[in-house]
Design brief:
The protein is of the alpha/beta class. Helix content is about 45%, strand content about 15%. Strands 1-2-3-4-7-8-10-11 form an eight-stranded parallel beta barrel, surrounded by four helices. The protein binds ligand G3I.
Length: about 350
């Protein structure tokens, strides 16, 4: 009898704890927990700005520049081109049609000038981060043209001589033609050319770029973009260059595809910026922490990308999309952890920084 009681008790215990056991095992398999974080102590031999033949830039946030001395110190030490991550977009700049909020963007431009760094303005015309008064605007095509012209010329005019280059139009083209955005809908495809013309009129010295994502990995999209831009230039639009955002992973796109993209771009006369580089190492969210293996793969990738990018004809700069892993857009966008940048959340250089520096130097 005793044996039966014991077996019965064990059976009940197993049944009760089975779900928890299953969960723990599954979690361990899925996330590799407990997760062993990478262990590194990187001393870079120099800075990216000093090592590189072309400006090495970073997207920055005004509040962090103001309030976080370590963040600001990394920016001014390592980089010589600053891109406002959000401060120059229409929404942050234009709370209402008659009101411009220059404070944050002005702070970034002032900071750059004091750090002997250039400024790349981002972005004059986009379909995201629009102020509500634009999203709800109602008018004729001429009214929309007037609205957009007023915006482009006011912003470029405000920074004339202080912002060296602009992402004039962002993410307006997809395989098959123009993306169906609010600007395309109310003005037609001409808005792209108009925006470049207006920007050039407002600051003839500024270098003007069209900026888009996946151009190094989606060669159909790249063909479409280059074809549309070439047509615009043939009609007289002052488009100087193409911005390749380069939001990539440790694996995608392959180096071969990137080389093919670079060859395609080289057949045109555009200047080229790598405008928003980051290297996601946890695209599917499977890792709970930044492991040694992820760090080593990212170091190799940043090194390979640096070498590939420096081969781009008429390359005018490489900018990473954020200072540190503690402030990357990617985590909010993807909803899970990732560590895509050159500095970690404590502003320490990662192995990625060592790989990138080695390619630049
Ligand atoms: O400033 C407001 C704040 O007042 C509010 O409390 C908070 C919560 O709603 O939102 C804050 O605004 C956020 C803004 O970033 C500043 O942090 C927006 O919600 C958020 O959508 C915005 O995300 C930006 C995203 O563009 C918007 O699409 C990212 O920071 C920025 O890195 C990202 O950058 C884009 C490039 O401009 C174009 N290429 C793709 C790239 C990644 O999406």
């Amino acid at each position: 009898m005793e044996r039966k009681k014991v077996l019965g008790a064990v059976a009940i215990a197993v049944l009760i704890t089975a779900p928890l056991s299953y969960y723990l095992v599954a979690k361990f398999i899925a996330t590799g927990s407990p997760c062993e974080p990478a262990n590194y102590d990187i001393q870079l031999p120099g800075t990216f700005r000093d090592a590189s033949q072309v400006p090495i830039g970073v997207a920055v946030d005004a509040d962090l520049l103001k309030d976080d001395p370590e963040y600001a110190g990394v920016v001014s030490k390592y980089f010589n081109s600053l891109t406002p991550e959000n401060a120059m977009k229409m929404g942050p700049l234009r709370p209402s049609r008659d009101e411009y909020y220059w404070t944050d963007a002005d702070f970034i431009v002032d900071f750059a000038e004091q750090a002997n760094a250039s400024v790349h303005g981002h972005c004059l015309v986009w379909h995201q981060q629009l102020p509500s008064w634009v999203s709800s605007f109602s008018g004729t095509r001429d009214d929309w043209v007037a609205l957009l012209k007023e915006h482009v010329q006011a912003v470029v005019g405000h920074y004339k001589g202080r912002v060296a280059s602009w992402d004039v139009v962002n993410e307006a083209i997809e395989p098959g033609g123009y993306r169906d955005t609010i600007w395309y809908e109310h003005i037609g495809p001409e808005y792209l050319e108009y925006a470049f013309t207006w920007a050039h009129e407002a600051d003839p010295a500024a270098t003007l770029y069209y900026n888009d994502y996946d151009l190094l990995g989606d060669l159909d999209k790249l063909d479409e973009v280059l074809g549309v831009l070439n047509g615009c230039v043939a009609r007289g639009a002052p488009i100087d260059g193409v911005g390749l955002q380069a939001h990539v992973t440790s694996e995608w796109p392959s180096n071969g595809t990137i080389s093919d993209a670079i060859s395609k771009i080289g057949q045109y006369g555009f200047k080229v910026r790598v405008s928003e580089l980051d290297v996601a190492v946890n695209p599917s969210g499977g890792s709970g922490c930044f492991t040694q293996a992820l760090a080593e793969a990212q170091e190799a990738r940043y090194g390979e990308l640096g070498e590939l990018f420096l081969k781009i004809p008429r390359l005018t700069g490489i900018s990473v999309w954020g200072v540190d892993d503690g402030h990357t857009w990617l985590v909010g966008f993807k909803g899970h952890p990732d560590w895509p940048l050159l500095f970690d959340g404590n502003y320490a250089p990662k192995p990625a920084a060592r790989g990138f520096y080695a390619a630049l130097a």
